[in-house]
Amino acid sequence: MALEGGCIYLSQLKAPTKEVESLKKDCRVTQRRLKALLASGTLPGKVGAWENETPHEGHHGRGKGDVFPMWLEDDGMDGGRRHAKVFCNEARKFHKPNSFALVNLIGVASDQSCSSSGQQLHGCVLRSGYFSHIHVSTSLIKFYVKMQSFSDAQKLFVEIPEPNVVTWNTMISGYVHAGHFRNALSFFISLERSHVFADEFSFTSALSACSQLSLFKLGSSIHCKTVKLGMANGTVVANCLIDMYGKCDSVEHAVSVFYESIDKDVISWNSVIAASANNGHIGLAYKFLQLMPNPDIVSYNGLLNGIAQVGNMGDAVQVLSSLPSPNSSSWNSVITGFVNRKRAREALDMFCKMHSRNVEMDEFTYSIILDGIAGLSALTWGMLIHCCAIKCGLDASVVVGSALIDMYSKCGQVKDAEPVFLALPNKNLVSWNAMISGYACNGGSAQVIHLFELLKMDRDMHPDCITFLNLLSACSHNQIPLEVAIRYFESMIHEYKIAPSVEHCCSMIRLMGQKGELWRAERMIHELGFESFGVVWRALLGACGTKADLQVAETAAAKAIELESDEDYVYVMMSNMYASFGRWEDANVTRSLMSTKRVRKEAGSSLIATDVALF
User: Fold this and answer.
1) Of 439, 441, 461, the residue nearest 450 (C-alpha)
2) Total structural domains in the chain?
3) Source organism's superkingdom (predicted)?
4) Angle formed by the axes of helices 429-441 and 414-423, nearest 10°
5) What is the model's pLDDT at position 16?
6) What is the C-alpha end-to-end distance of the chain, expressed in Å?
7) Burial, 434: exposed, middle or buried (Cβ in 10 Å; 0-12, 13-18, 19+)?
8) Which of 138, 162, 186 marks a domain boundary?
9) Which of 381, 398, 426 is the last residue before a domain boundary?
């Protein structure tokens, strides 16, 4: 029997009467038996026919457990939005549903990404007094997590007096799936400090977050905990450990976990192959591939990706050609390899071959090739690929959208990037950063600050180190008042708890140099502990050039030469500064040192795009 919509009320069922009457005795028994009846097809008629029925007399007098949204367990995924609306309307007419019904309804709202229905059901939960029911409150948290409304999910979580491990796992896994790995680990650490015991799912989610952040020490400590609890040799945990160690560049640990794993499955083999190959151990990866009982396309892709990563592109193309049915991941690995080696023309050639062979392209294919085109500033090619993405319906993807924003911005067409950004239905921090960076690189300081302020207003997203780097870069390139930039810099450290990087320091040095605050910039280098980084002294030397402060320039040049092997910029800069001060003898000595040390000024190069050709 195919269900088309609506909610089942026991009093509405006409036949088989004996079965229905016997089922009324117990809610849980009713639920199980009705499921069986649905599966056997013994309930006649279509549920959708009941949606518009007027309740008959006595309809208001049903017991508490008589509302059963059985469509949720059958075909509720089809038309779930309509079903949830019908349920809410019916629930308002009669009485409160039971907790089981609410859990399933909220699940449908979550699976269908139906925000309005979920919020109505939240209100229904509060009115019916079921929020204290742990399964209901957990399903609400899962709904808000699915809707990427983490602030609401966290508020609900805090209100639960005694969250169980499933509630904790809902928050942790939700953050992991959304890419908020540090938040996920923060929740995991809080779970460890609570009286609730973490389970296998808790550990695998935490290990996934460690993998993405390459947190070897934390991942190792979690490994130790799983050993103590007897979980480490389980297949699922072991697979996560192999992946984590592989992404933390510790092949030895990954292989050790693999050998200690009791029940190896295909994921175990694929994980150890990928861990070996991605860390440059191609021979070891090939050995595991030969030992694997039944390697699949994922196994070969792991080897192929490793070969492409180390730059053996000839071998990578050969392996790709030898695969009987390469999928999009196979092609993506080779295209990524070419893009990472700055060989965008060959990447474009592979993209065209992939298209001509009718291999389905995914969002990562477009993201990779757009990244390569952005490096070439090949606008015509970028527009052609944008058209392909629209044709495939991938232009609304946040991955493709972010790559398009970056490509248009690097091609100097930030106005074409704006509509792409505005049209994205689900913006993430990457897309925000891409747009902010685009404005920063194209002189739009006012737009950068405006977007930054809008981002701050979003409850579920917070600026990260890249956001602030783009913000400070915009300030340094667009004559923003120094005090404004300092306020942003201090906000990054104190409000958002982001430790400044060398890049942040260099941006501040350029800003201070523009305002003649060179001594302040030098003091900041020491205060932040970056005096051992040659790049900050080069930045200070460049700032001296704008204000012609020879004393600070000599200090910066000496430190840069001491710490860096790339000396051409330093010598040329100092020679020019000496000449500008009329110290020709010092300028000649500097030029002579360049000849003695065989330091050559590197020649610049540029590309010109004509139609779809690059010269």
Assistant:
1) 439
2) 3
3) Eukaryota
4) 160
5) 43
6) 65
7) buried
8) 162
9) 426
